[in-house]
């Protein structure tokens, strides 16, 4: 792989052009030694205004990380670190010291990050140990966006993350931690951090094995974040109890624009609780996903009526997904489409109307079923595919 330093120099010498960052995303580089990292080090050293560094899609060893960290130590202006999908094929013993080295470089520089992305690195709880010093340092004191999607954190990692984030006051706007098997205990630990922040605008925690106990804790935290605009808890078992808890937070969430509760086993009673909360509090949603939730026809209609109660609904709503639930006959679906307008995404679920309205509404065994399901899911694997790509910006 070659990096044209002459082109950088030329760009720097041209008026009205400055290099704002370094991007090595998607190069599939295997960086083991200091020498392997030299092209990145050279690029960093040649960039006087390193506002972002993107290393997504490469694999980084300890010695290479130390070399890059040494270069980072000269750049206090760094604001964005995109380190997603960066440890493919690495042993877990390599990841913490590599993360620690990068963090130490930014700490030495006195940088103040606003964005940190470490998604798609299956480093588990041991990786959080490598991140703890960075997260607790002044480098992250002004952090606005933290992305830890698909890291295999588990309950222990969730607790360690919460402990690191609670070391000093935070002003996060965006928190993303999907596909991490946080479960109830991890969610409760993070909920305590969210409650103390009060600045969150987006919370995205899909596919974490969270049941109504964890959802209840998150609901309480939401009440202390009135600026929340986007909430994604897709593919957790919110259930009717969790939906009722979320509904109690809606009076405080006047800025909420998007909810994704797809595949959360809400059932009809959970959908009704949400519908009532949305209607009673005049929440001006733009997007709602309640797909595949075993919701019956009448409850689906209550959701539609709640969303369209205000006269501006057709212009405001961009996406309403009720696919995978029981929507009734063609006349009923047409009524929903007429009310929702082009935002409607409708199709029937696999079960019948009767299945969704009768026996499936029984929550009497929910607590014991929650525990058994969590035990079964503790060893779920973490997919390390993906990453974020960004082209180097020269402005």
TrEMBL record:
UniProt-recorded Gene Ontology molecular function terms: GTPase activator activity; small GTPase binding
Superkingdom, natural source: Eukaryota
A Pfam family that the UniProt record links to this protein: LRR_6
GO biological process assignments: nucleocytoplasmic transport
GO cellular component: cytosol; nucleus; perinuclear region of cytoplasm
Residue spans of biased composition, Acidic residues class: 347-377
Cell wall biogenesis/degradation is among the record's keywords: no
Keyword annotations: GTPase activation, Leucine-rich repeat, Repeat
Region (Disordered), start-end ranges: 331-395
Protein name: Ran GTPase-activating protein 1
């Amino acid at each position: 792989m070659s990096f044209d330093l002459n082109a950088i120099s030329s760009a720097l010498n041209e008026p009205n052009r400055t290099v704002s960052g370094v991007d090595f995303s998607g190069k599939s580089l295997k960086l083991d030694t200091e020498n392997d990292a030299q092209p990145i080090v050279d690029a960093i050293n040649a960039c006087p205004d390193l506002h972002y560094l993107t290393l997504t899609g490469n694999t980084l060893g300890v010695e290479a990380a130390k070399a890059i960290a040494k270069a980072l130590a000269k750049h206090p202006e760094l604001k964005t670190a995109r380190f997603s999908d960066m440890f493919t094929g690495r042993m877990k013993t390599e990841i913490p010291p590599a993360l620690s080295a990068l963090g130490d470089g930014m700490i030495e520089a006195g940088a103040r990050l606003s964005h940190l992305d470490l998604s798609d690195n299956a480093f588990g709880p041991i990786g959080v140990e490598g991140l703890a010093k960075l997260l607790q340092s002044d480098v992250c004191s002004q952090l606005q966006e933290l992305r830890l999607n698909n890291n295999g954190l588990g309950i222990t990692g969730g607790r360690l993350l919460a402990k690191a984030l609670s070391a000093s006051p935070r002003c996060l706007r965006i928190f993303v931690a999907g596909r991490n098997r946080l479960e109830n205990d991890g969610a409760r630990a993070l909920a305590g951090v969210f409650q103390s922040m009060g600045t969150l605008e987006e919370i995205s925690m899909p596919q974490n094995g969270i049941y109504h106990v964890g959802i209840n804790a998150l609901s309480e935290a939401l009440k202390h974040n009135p600026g929340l605009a986007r909430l994604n808890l897709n593919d957790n078992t919110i259930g009717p109890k969790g939906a009722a808890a979320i509904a109690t937070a809606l009076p405080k969430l006047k800025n909420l624009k998007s909810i994704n509760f797809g595949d959360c086993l809400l059932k009809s009673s959970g959908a009704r609780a949400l519908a009532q909360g949305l209607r009673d509090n005049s929440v001006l949603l733009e997007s709602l996903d309640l797909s595949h939730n075993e919701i019956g026809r009448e409850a689906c209609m209550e959701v539609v009526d709640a969303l369209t109660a205000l006269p501006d609904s057709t212009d405001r709503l961009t996406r309403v997904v009720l696919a995978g639930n029981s929507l009734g006959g063609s006349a009923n679906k047409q009524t929903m489409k007429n009310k929702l307008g082009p935002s409607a995404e409708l199709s029937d679920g696999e079960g019948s109307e009767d299945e969704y309205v009768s026996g499936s509404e029984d929550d009497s065994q929910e607590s014991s079923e929650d525990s058994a399901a969590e035990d079964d899911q503790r060893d779920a694997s973490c997919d390390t595919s993906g990453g974020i790509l960004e082209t180097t910006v020269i402005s």
